[in-house]
Amino acid sequence: MKKTAVVLLSGGLDSATTAAIAKAEGYELVALSVDYGQRHRFELEAAEGVAQSLGIARHEHVSIDLASFGGSALTTELEVPKDRAADQMEADIPVTYVPARNTVFLSLALALAEASGSSDLFIGVNAVDYSGYPDCRPEFIEAFERTANLATKVGVEGTAAFRIHTPLIALTKAEIVRRGTELGVDYSLTHTCYDPDDAGVSCGRCDACQLRQQGFIDAGLVDPLTYQRQGESTEA
């Protein structure tokens, strides 16, 4: 029998690559996508396409309302930062940080994993080319893994040990793009932008768009997405 794993699938470049890596490692995947009240809802449609393209037979969807708490430009009408240089992105925790999002997501994935008889969880966090989110760091992942094994029935009984896999955590965006390309990820299906227009076209100017575009440039590859405008960090 194949080993199974739960993969958090947002529909973005990183989560699509993470799912492809998990599949290449021989896991039968259960995908979990979360509708948390995000403004950039096109990513949920993208997650469907990515799951289908990777042949993921079971794709679970959970709806929660983090938007009711506020505190983030991704769930409220706060302005999404645009045209920021790399040093600005790294200077502090940006307003696009969603309070406790990855903690909530991993908790949901943990519940699904335990109910499904799986002890492996995959999440596409990255601590290199990212926007300063505290819940993307190795320290957080290690702490949550310890918590997972303390707070679950199978962990206490010792019948399984949960492992959280973060295959992208030490990779640059270019390395992520290259790895996904090697594995056949169709990046035209993914959605990265924090502030797309009504048709779902990416802005090309938010932190996420700029990091993505620069990643493709550094990888020597062409980003298949169309943008309203190319990010300033990637313009000639």
Structure, explained:
With 236 residues, the protein is of the alpha/beta class. It has one domain (3-234): 3-Layer(aba) Sandwich (Rossmann fold), CATH 3.40.50.620. The chain is 36% helix and 11% strand. The protein contains 8 helices and 5 strands; from the N terminus they run βαβαβααβααβαα. It has helices at 13-24, 42-53, 86-89, 101-116, 138-150, 153-157, 173-182, 207-219, and strands spanning 3-8, 27-35, 58-63, 120-122, 163-165. Helix 2 links the parallel strand 2 and strand 3 (58-63). Helix 1 packs across helix 7 (173-182) and helix 7 packs across helix 8 (207-219). 43% of the residues are buried. Mean pLDDT is 93; it is low at 231-236.
Summarize the structure.
With about 240 residues, the protein is of the alpha/beta class. The chain has helices at about 15-25, 40-55, 85-90, 100-115, 140-150, 155, 175-180, 205-220; strands at about 5-10, 25-35, 60-65, 120, 165. Helices cover about 35% and strands about 10% of the residues.
